Amino acid sequence: MSDLGFVSPQSLHFAEPLALRSGQQLADYTIVYETYGTLNAERSNAVLVCHALNASHHVAGRYENQARSEGWWNNLVGPGKPLDTDRFFVIGISNPGSCFGSTGPMHPNPASASGRPYGADFPVMTVEDWVDAQARVIDRLGIDTLAGVLGGSLGGMQALAWALRHPTRLRQCIAVATAPNLSAQNIAFNEVARRAIVTDPDFHGGHFYEHGVVPRRGLTVARMIGHITYLSDDAMEAKFGRDLHAAALGYTTRDTEFQIESYLRHQGDKFSEYFDANSYLLITRALDYFDPAREHGGDLTATFAAARCRFQLVSFSTDWRFAPARSREIVKALVDNQLDVSYAEIDAPHGHDAFLLEDPRYHGVLRASFDNLAREVGATGAAP
């Protein structure tokens, strides 16, 4: 196996407004994306990768002259890897509202005569809105049907939404470590994180750009809260236990005393240096809103009656934020509709973050799934 080497982002501009579920619209916007591999003559081997909260279009490969610039799913996507770019044309897209190039809250609001950034005025986005925006990119690339749509966590919700909103445009949905909606506990975690941001004195009602400041304290705390939920108790215990940050207890209520405290602060500080506060609010709210069964009286079986593609679902035993039971709810709904579904529940100690890691059993499941898909679409170099 080898890496993709250096890759470059591309962008597409859309003048036609995108109608949003809120009743608003996003006008005159740009979407940034990357592609890896080669689209075959039949245009049948394209796989869309949907990103989670703090990821982007940069799925795999590296940027030239940038240290530590590997794509966020580089262990999964590339030549000879489970999602093999020698066989598939892989597409990564930064969703509108993110802070990695696609039009978002930090960009100029076309409705503002002064060119003021959107800030808090950026329209609320939903998972379904993102999927519709992605479909426009796929249209521009001249692709009618995707071989597959893959995503983990929030990306998995987008993959599910593809199967429901554009059921004839994908052959397979691969949804990893995801859920049909957020539990009340998950919504609560998101709300606490949002409150940390909006109560930061440097937030300025979402228009902090004009003040030349960033609500770093709020972003740091928000990331610390989120990061706790991505790890399992076992993973935290194995990595940190009750190890002290210094040689001895300092008997202080303000400074870090334990290694886990130091780790969380480091992760939060690092996050606050590159992520946009308004994007964080917008993306976590999109997580909260995702609930396709709401339009069917909460009946998940009725919801998935519209689906036509094959499904591969994966969950992880210690993922308490998107527990295996939530994936099983989806599996049951698919089975009730007599749809083709495979399900793998991986016994892994890493918690929710397991979907980003190189677990050989997990990668084996995805490799087998993509091998089958490659044979189905006649992708070059498919296994016999």
Automatic annotation (TrEMBL):
Q: Which Pfam family, any one of them, does this sequence belong to?
A: Abhydrolase_1
Q: Which family does it belong to?
A: Belongs to the AB hydrolase superfamily. MetX family.
Q: Which GO terms describe its molecular function?
A: homoserine O-acetyltransferase activity; homoserine O-succinyltransferase activity
- Record keywords, A-Z: Acyltransferase, Amino-acid biosynthesis, Cytoplasm, Methionine biosynthesis, Transferase
Q: Where is this site: Important for acyl-CoA specificity?
A: R321
List of residues binding substrate: R223, D353
The principal location of this protein is: cytoplasm
Residues of the active site are S153, D319, H352
| Highest taxon above the source species | Bacteria
Quaternary structure, per UniProt, is:
Homodimer.
What does the UniProt entry say about where the protein is found? Answer: Cytoplasm
AB hydrolase-1 domain: residues covered:
45-357
What does the record list as GO biological process?
homoserine metabolic process; methionine biosynthetic process
Per its record, how is this protein called by name?
A: Homoserine O-succinyltransferase
SUPFAM superfamilies per UniProt: alpha/beta-Hydrolases
Q: Record the organism.
A: Piscinibacter koreensis
A GO CC annotation given for this chain:
cytoplasm
Q: Where are the transmembrane segments?
A: none
Swiss-Prot/TrEMBL catalytic activity: L-homoserine + succinyl-CoA = O-succinyl-L-homoserine + CoA
Gene name as annotated: metXS
